[in-house]
Amino acid sequence: MDPSQQQEAASKEANIVAHQKTATLAPKEAMTAMDEEAEQSTPEEGTENPIRIVTEEERRNAEAKRLEGNQHFIASSFEEAFQCYSEALLFLPESDSLAIPLFSNRALCYLKLNRPRDCINDADKVLAIEPTHIKALFRRAAAREQVGEPELALADFKKVAELEPSLASAAEAVRRLEPIVAEKQEREKAEMISKLKDLGNTILGKFGLSTDNFRLKKDEATGSYSINFQQ
Q1: Lowest mean pLDDT among 89-98, 102-111, 120-129, 192-201
Q2: What is the pLDDT of residues 187-228, one digit of tens each?
Q3: What share of the chain is helix, strand, coil (3-state, %, to 5)?
Q4: pLDDT (tens digit, 9 = 90+) per residue, 129-159?
Q5: What does the angle CA 85 – CA 91 – CA 96 come to, to the nearest 5 degrees?
Q6: Angstrom distance (rounded) from CA 177 to CA 158
Q7: Of the candidates 144, 52, 36, which has an alpha carbon nearest to the alpha carbon of residue 94?
Q8: With CB atoms counted within 10 Å of each terminal CB, which end of the chain scores lower, N or C?
């Protein structure tokens, strides 16, 4: 083999080796590129979800289910009405204007089905968007009373009465709940004072004293109190 043939053979061998190296490195480089692309496409933490666009077909389906639910409710078929309102809500985001009456109506269904906690949850969704929604306030108030939260129920009924003074049922609920709440608060106050007194006696007992050695005296002119010690 003359020198020119040797040089050509050496050049071919070098090309083959270079090609093999490139073929070996290419998958790794490709994976690296894919990883970098994936990192770049990952949403940043705290990025909000895009606003959902409701199609006309979805809106028609939701409205049809709402009307069907209304018919079931009129017929006192509350479970069927609840199902229809729930199906209608599947077509809509919670912030949609049509979702407000659906959540409010479903809250009433929950109330009729003796599910007050669920009623409160749906009413909360309405009031988060429309804080003066009278029906949602009234339904949440009734549900709160059912679950033993008279203070919160009273607050809702008072707001309803303020927004709609002609609504006699709200005014009646306020009159009925006010003494119940006042009695509950006095009872809780007495229980708290009793616990504090027990704690005080535990501490003072180490010194041969008790809370009975101290008397609170109210100054009628200022409304302030002074503490008097007695043996």
Answers
A1: 192-201
A2: 766 666 666 665 656 676 666 666 666 666 666 777 676 666
A3: 75, 5, 25
A4: 999 999 999 999 999 999 999 999 999 999 9
A5: 85
A6: 10
A7: 52
A8: C
pLDDT at residue 59 greater than cutoff 90: yes
- The secondary element (H helix, E strand) that includes residue 225 is strand 225-229
Burial-class residue 105 by CB neighbours within 10 Å (0-12, 13-18, 19+).
buried
DSSP letter for 213, please.
G
Sign of CA dihedral 158, 159, 165, 168: negative
CA 217, CA 132: separation in Å to the nearest integer? 45
What is the phi/psi pair of residue 115, to 5°?
Answer: -125, 65
Identify the band that residue 35 occupies on the pLDDT scale cut at 50, 70 and 90. very low
Type of residue at 159: K
- Reference 141, options 125, 114, 159; nearest CA is 159
Q: Does the predicted model carry a pTM greater than 0.85?
A: no
**Maximum C-alpha span of the chain:** 128
- 104 vs 76: CA distance, rounded Å: 16
Handedness of CA 61, 66, 70, 73 (dihedral sign): positive
What are the backbone dihedrals phi and psi of residue 63, each rounded to the nearest 5 degrees, phi first?
-65, -40
Q: Cα 200 vs. chain centroid, distance in angstroms?
A: 40
